[in-house]
Amino acid sequence: MKQTLLIITFILFAAKLFAQVPARGGNARPPLPVREVSGIVKDSTDEAIIGATVKLKTATDSTVTTTNADGIFVFKNIKSATFVLSITSIGFKPLVRRMLNNDAVARLVLDPIILGAQSNQLAAVVVNAPSITYKTDTVEYRASDYKVRPNATVDELLKKMEGMEVGSDGSVTHQGQQITKAKLNGKDYAGGDLARAIQSLGADVVEKIQVVDDYGDQAARTGIKDGDPQKVLNITTRADRSVGNTARINAGGGNNSRYESRVALERRDGNKVLNINGNFRNTVNGVASSGIAGGAGGGGNNGAPGATGSGGTTTSGSPSITYRDQWTPKIEVNMNYRYNYTNVNSVNNSYGQSYYQSRLPNGTAQSDTLFFVRNSNQLNNNKQHNFSFEFEYSPDSANFLRVTPTININSSSASSNSSRADSGLRFQNNNGSNISSNTTPNFGGIIFYQHIFKKPRRNASIQLSYNHTNQQQDNEQNTLIGYKNNLGLVTGNLNTHRLITRDNLTRNFRTSVTYVEPLSLISQFEFNAQINYRGYDNNALTDSIAPSGLRLPMGEGLNNVYNYAFTESRLAFNYRLNQTKYNLSFGVTAVPTSLTGDNVSRGNIRTTRNNFFVIPIARFQYQWSRQHRASINYSGSPVEPSFTQIQPIIDTSNRQNPIVGNPNLKVSFRHNVNAQYNNYLSNSKFNISVNLYGSTVRNQIATNNVRILDPADPNKRAYINQTNYVNLSGSYSAGGNYNLAKQLADRKYNLSLNGSVTFNHSLAMVDNLPTTTNAWRLNQRFGPRINPNESIEVNPFISYDYTKTFLTVGSTSTTTLQRTALAIDGRFFLMKERSLTIGYEASKNFIGGNIQQSVSSNPLVINGYIEKDFLARRNLTFRIQVFDILKQNNFTNQVINDNGYTNTLSNALSRYFMFSVRTNLQKWSGSPSRNGRPMRRRGDGSFY
């Protein structure tokens, strides 16, 4: 009894003491009457689920909504922070989840909700996300939505996609911008060779095609963007096509010693890739295809075969090897080696005009015109070795190290014979030969380290890079100038035979440090400091070659030994705000620069130039959904003059064109503004893309071409052209391009309209008087792709290209060039299982404008082939094809310079036949797994 009384007394005493202690949480915020609840619903592949039904039920009421195009749902005015969430969607397992949240928070953002696939749905029910997704720096295409024939390659898949234009040479343009590199699952593939990647990889292995605005590896890790991006094509593979072996082999031969072969052998196991690839060919430039294969015709020549480029024949080979592997869970490597050789033999005929202005003694301006005709044949041989090895080490989740050494060895040789006749301003003939050789070994490397702090999004990084290039060149020039009098008779000759030896050593060093400090959940501060050093050691020695072959050193006026260095520092401070619908960045970059140099051969003449720039940073992007976005970006960059342009000497190694440097040249500065709009209407399968740009240059480094009487002309009528350099402000350019693409009848009909318009206003000087060049270019391309059934494929195409140039040199001269191209290509699939294919390509160019008839030819180019598939999988194919049946293919090209233009016509033996055999072998072993479980994937397709 005493024990019981003692316990009761103790409890009462403790309760009295506890009553004296203030309650914990007395300062806590009271519960809110209502709140907003939001979240996102995804599938197991991290894709947003559109149209899922989301039901929220509390103790007192319930409400229902559906997810939007981004998979996001939002409930407003919810009275309780405790509720039950139910999500259902066709093709996925229902999910019910009870939520207990802080009732004092006004906006509750739930963790992503993942729905599993439903295995007992009707087979006929298929739910797909939109075919195109626009992300911050990436455009993503779902490959399964674009149908291609069995054994097709990636380039055929790209031709089906909106905004893509694919050339017969493997070049790819996306929404008017050139793609420069290829990756496979986030890593360089075949050394980044775009053509090799899309022409050797099978379309059936592709899960997604991504077009990425790549600001470099450092930006990809840190998020800090600097400079202008390059377009990169990233191919992500299907999980069930990521373990296996493939072999694609093609071999063909024809008349006139034509041949073409390609081999691609690959072993793939998740991140592990071993690829051996090779292309070998001897073909005629530009006639292997009409060039109209692409989203809008989209050939490498804007759908106008033979419109640009150079003529002749090319013998080339390009073997390569790619090795990628995950050595340990912490170490990953990626190695690429590629060897290229190219031999081009071409014959070119060109003509043009150059305009000059002078003043008579009475001050009256007088315009003079130089007319010229030039014929040449050239042989160019080039060899390249490219090696890179990427080593990545991740000791833990907070640290990352990448080391990338590179070795490149380039060598080339060229020989040419030419003849030129000038009239008008001067009358003379110029016949000559030119032989040159060049070797350029290059080695370097990049070291990148990043540390991620415990605070979310806080990180720091440092990148060091070094590059060493030593270019050695020998150039033998042998020219004979014949001077003419008023009657057109040669009255004097001048023979110049020289050997110029150049040795150019370049060293580049770059250090970049970044730091990111999050300021809130949606904002952050970014800092970037850089030092860029470029050092140059240059030697140019000129010898005269006597008729006996003896080399005689020439005077200082023809020798030039100079060293200089350019150092650019950057300090960038940037604020970034990331909202659900938009993100923006603004800041400032301080850029001090220094250029110093010494001309050793002219008495150690010292030149020093220091400058300081302040560049604003401004980027803004608004994203209505994952299919609808707009952005605008400003960038600025200084461009330093080369040492050749600023050294105060006369370089007379080319007596017809001496060069005089200007030590008072300033660094020019370019302002750029780019705007972009993209909208994919998934229900209508209609895509709109528009790009606009504008730029202006302050203190542009321009040329001043001054005529000087040629002292070697006995008639005192010939002039040589001396190039001087000046700063001019006022040059600008503007333009834009668009793409409209519409898919009809389950993608059986693809309508694609592309166009661009550009305007360039450039300044220069001729004979110390200002000149202007205003150039307009309008290009329109319409190329529907028609596949009414599985037996017919028809792709008509029409393009119109108009260029008009106003050259003001005293008086105004106008040149116009119009090119209309009509083309069609297609295939008929016959016999059982459509194993017989008849293909054709035809194009007709109509060229006009105020140009000579010799260039304005209107060729009709027709190519055709017949091929037959064999074996059960139809992976053995025999083909017979003929190129340029009517033998009308040619090349025309117009080049506009500061005071004139040049039109070039190149002919080739373009008609030939070829017989080829190709095979496609593949064996797959399922999806990558680790410890019996499927491996997860990153957004770029890599496995982990």
Supply Rg: 34 Å
CATH fold call of the largest domain: Maltoporin, Chain A
pLDDT under 50 segments (min length 5)? Answer: 1-26, 121-126, 286-309
Q: Which CATH architecture of the largest domain would you pick?
A: Beta Barrel
- Tell me the span between the first and last alpha carbons: 70 Å
Structural class by SSE content? mainly beta
Number of domains: 2
| Count of DSSP H/I helices | 5
Short description:
With 944 residues, this protein is mainly beta. Helix content is 4%, strand content 64%. The relative contact order is 0.10.
Task: Quickly list its features.
single chain, mainly beta, Immunoglobulin-like, 2 domains, 33-stranded mixed β-sheet, 8-stranded mixed β-sheet, globular, disordered N terminus
Descriptive account of the structure:
- The chain has 2 domains: 35-122, Immunoglobulin-like (Sandwich); 280-506 and 513-930, Maltoporin, Chain A, CATH 2.40.170.
- The protein is mainly beta.
- It has a 33-stranded mixed sheet that branches. Strands 9, 10, 11, 12, 13, 14, 15 and 16 form an 8-stranded mixed sheet that branches. Strands 1, 4, 7 and 8 form a 4-stranded mixed sheet that branches.
- The radius of gyration is 34 Å and the shape is globular.
- It is built from 5 helices and 53 strands.
- A hairpin with a 4-residue loop joins β40 (731-744) and β41.
